[in-house]
Amino acid sequence: MGKERLLPWLVEFSRVNAASLAKGRPGDLPNLIYELRQWLDLEPDEPLNREVGDLERGPPRLQAIIDRVAELLEAVADRKRFRADYSGGGVVLDASKLAFAGGRALSYRDAKLQDAVVRVALDDLYEDTAAALRIQRCQEPECSKVFLAERKNQKYCSHRCANKAASRTYRKAHGKERAARERARYERKVKERAGPSVKVARRPRRKRQP
Ligand SMILES: [Zn+2]
User: Fold this and answer.
1) What is the rounded end-to-end Cα distance, in angstroms, of the chain?
2) Rounded distance, CA 170 to CA 109, Å?
3) What pLDDT digit, counting tens, does each position of 84-138 carry?
4) Which of 50, 66, 174, 190 is deepest in the core (most CB within 10 A)?
C-alpha cells in the first residue's frame, strides 16, 4: 500500500460495520481483509497471517479490532491521549526494506492481531504527523464523526454537514425577522376575515419565571 494511502485507509477502516459488511455483497468482507493484509504488509511466515484469515469467519472479532482503531482515531481527532498496553511479542527490523517504498521495514510479531494493528496504526500516525493532524471530528453535532480533512480548516466531514450547520446559523440569525413576518401575515388574515375595523389582540406575554 502506497504511503499516501495508509491513513485514508485507516480512517475508512475505523468506520466499517463488520456485521453489515458480512451480510452485504459477497466480495466485501474478503476485500476488506485483503486490504488489511496489504496495510499490515505481513511477511508470508508471520503467524498473524492465520489470524487475519480467520477474520472472515467471525465479524465480532473483526469489529473488536475496528473499534479499537476507531478509539485511537477519535483520540487523535480530539487531540487526547491514547494508551495501548503490550506485553510479549517482538519487533523485527528488516533493513533490506528500508529503501523500498510501500514496504514496512518494521514488522510486529505480536501475539494478538489487535495489538499488531494498533501498533502499526500508531506507527502510521507518528510517521506522517501532518496527515495525522488532518484527522478531525465533524463539528456538526448530529454527525460528529471522525474524518480526514482535505483542507486545514475544514470543520465538516461533508457538504451535507456544512449545509446543515449553515442553515442552522441562518435560522438563528433570522428567527426574529421571521417571527415578525409571520405576525404581520396573521394580522392581515384576521383583518381580511373580520373587516378592517377589528384590532388584533397580541397574545399575552408569558410571565418570566423568577
Ligand atoms: Zn459530518
Assistant:
1) 64
2) 54
3) 988 788 888 888 888 777 778 888 888 889 999 999 999 999 989 999 999 999 9
4) 66
Backbone angles phi, psi at 137, to 5 degrees: -105, 135
Distance from the alpha carbon of residue 28 to the mean position of ligand 1, in angstroms = 24
- CB neighbours (10 Å) of residue 165? 18
Asked whether residue 156 carries a pLDDT value surpassing 60, the answer given is yes
**How far, in Å, from the CA of 116 to the mean position of ligand 1?**
30
Ligand 1 centre and the CA of 179: distance in Å?
A: 30
Going from the Cα of 106 to the center of ligand 1, the distance in angstroms, rounded, reads: 35
Q: What is the dihedral of CA 97, 98, 103, 104, to 10 degrees?
A: 100
pTM of this structure: 0.77
Q: Which residues pair with 148 in a beta bridge?
A: 135
Are 73 and 135 in contact, with CB atoms under 8 Å apart? yes
